[in-house]
From TrEMBL:
It is found in: Cell membrane. The chain crosses the membrane at residues 61-81, 88-107, 113-136, 148-169, 175-197, 209-231, 237-260, 272-291, 311-330, 342-362, 368-392, 404-426, 438-460. It comes from Streptomyces hainanensis. GO terms for cellular component: plasma membrane. The keyword Transmembrane helix applies. This is MFS transporter. GO terms for molecular function: transmembrane transporter activity.
Length: 493
């Protein structure tokens, strides 16, 4: 609803409140600057370390904790929007993002750059939960397929451009110029937000701070990423690796389990603990983890094996954009049909195809094999993750979609950004030639086993697919999917 306030204050005037293009721009500008950084930093590590005076561990810790901050921010947002209007959360976090980006830009050393990068992650995680639900729910069901395609192409398209941007900086320098662009884009996003974000009431104004979710979420995100970062200065047997990793992952399990059993959970796990959303979320976790791992392994191999320049490596991987674009178009076409769950599983098969191609790569054929594999990987990421977001979000009434996105992003981020560094360290330990093939084979095995298990889970849970009832969903009274319980067919027999 539009504000009925007659206050003349600028922040209560929203001339673009009903503009769909403005809402799309708001969401993309809130999310894409940080998402580009998540895939750009690996190819520009050398200039960052040299100019910031950072060790490999310090830089990896900064990057890892920024990813942890993104996952935590999504959970924190689910709590904030209960008591604070989304509009004000957006203003504070987008403004905070501008300040953090500016601090990273002027940072003389890793001591300022690292906390600034972490805050960029936290603010982006919050902004995802704040900005995407209004874009999805407030512009009519007819635009929902287009919205899904825009989210897929905008978010993952920017992620797939990260290697090219990082490669340019890795070869020619100028990382501060990148942060000039990040700061400018976030400032533009704040300006559009002032003109677009409508006034709204909190979801539960009397809600209290959720001590059962927020503190565990800090541990579940920060500890595993610290442990993985330690591998840059230690070994797998180090207690500083496995203890934070194990404690953090167990805390995440306890967090999700606790949300399932709570009467008024911050993230409603119980409504999505049935066949369609479970298989979708699991497919997103596996697709995200294996996609990210294969990209990181390929970058390391091309840099150390045939010794390609960072810009050449980034250029070869830019073919991912073709796959992402194809996935976005297919999401748009299938959004209102019964085939969206099948697409989520098909994304895993595309990632597997990319992994099979990478097993054949050599210094002599890398320029041909890597772009072909990148197309499959890009399609797999878009087809595996975006449908999963909507399978989960459409399984609950529309007002709960923000909390569901928080849960999905927490689980997906943990999987996507933890597996890659571990297998990359394993590959480097064995020598890049043999280690690359070995780690790629492990990643491919994870993909195929995961796909097989999810197909079985899907087949045992449902015998008939149906299109989502989007008209009923948007009213806020019910989910769009009537998903059967897990293993429903076995229960019947």
């Amino acid at each position: 609803m539009r504000s009925s306030s007659s206050s003349p204050r600028l922040l209560n005037r929203v001339p673009w409140a009903s503009s769909y293009p403005a809402a799309v721009a708001l969401a993309l500008l809130a999310l894409t600057p940080f998402l580009v950084l998540t895939t750009a930093t690996s190819l520009m590590r050398q200039p960052l370390m040299e100019q910031l005076g950072a060790t490999p561990f310090e830089l990896q810790l900064a990057v890892g904790l920024s990813n942890a901050g993104y996952a935590f921010g999504a959970v924190a947002a689910a709590d904030l929007i209960l008591r604070v209007p989304r509009r004000w959360v957006y203003f504070v976090c987008e403004g905070g993002f501008v300040v953090a980006a500016a601090l990273a830009l002027i940072a003389p050393g890793i001591g300022l750059f690292a906390p600034a990068l972490v805050m960029l992650g936290v603010f982006t995680g919050i902004l995802l939960v704040v900005s995407l639900p209004p874009l999805i729910t407030r512009h009519g069901v007819d635009r929902l397929p287009t919205t899904a395609a825009v989210i897929s192409l905008g978010l993952f398209g920017m992620v797939t451009l990260g290697p090219l941007i990082g490669g340019l900086i890795g070869s020619y320098g100028g990382w501060r110029l990148l942060f000039v662009g990040v700061t400018a884009l976030s400032a533009l996003g704040l300006t559009i937000g002032v003109l677009t974000f409508e006034h709204n009431e909190p979801l539960r104004p009397g809600a209290r701070f959720d001590w059962y979710a927020i503190p565990p979420a800090v541990l579940a995100t920060a500890l595993p990423f610290f442990g993985v970062a330690w591998l840059t200065r230690g070994q797998f047997a180090s207690v500083w690796f496995w203890l934070p990793l194990v404690v953090g992952v167990l805390t995440a399990v306890v967090l999700v389990g606790g949300q399932y059993w709570r009467r008024e959970p911050l993230m409603p796990v119980r409504p999505i603990s049935n066949t369609l959303p479970v298989t979708g979320i699991a497919a997103a976790m596996v697709a995200g983890a294996t996609f990210t791992t294969l990209i990181e392994l390929t970058e390391a191999y091309l840099l150390a094996g045939p010794r390609y320049s960072p810009v050449r490596v980034g250029g070869l991987l830019t073919a991912q954009v073709v796959g992402i674009a194809a996935a976005a178009l297919l999401v748009r076409r299938l959004m209102r049909t019964r085939w969206l769950p099948v697409m989520a599983l098909g994304g895993l098969l595309s990632v597997a195809a990319g992994g099979i191609l990478l097993l054949t790569v050599s210094p002599g054929n890398a320029s041909a094999i890597v772009p072909a594999a990148a197309v499959f990987l890009g399609f797999g990421a878009g087809a595996g993750v975006t449908p999963a977001l909507f399978l989960a979000g459409l399984s609950v009434p529309a007002p709960a979609i923000g909390s569901i996105f928080a849960l999905v992003e927490l689980l997906r981020s943990e999987a996507a950004f933890l597996v890659g560094p571990v297998l990359l360290h394993l590959a480097l330990d064995k020598g890049i030639e043999d280690g690359f093939k070995f780690a790629t084979a492990i990643t491919l095995t994870i993909t195929l086993v995961g796909a097989s298990l999810l197909v079985a889970l899907f087949a045992l849970g449902t015998d008939r697919l149906h299109p989502p009832d989007l008209d009923a969903w948007v009213t806020g009274k019910q989910g769009a999917y009537r998903s059967p319980p897990l293993l429903a067919r076995l229960r019947k027999s």
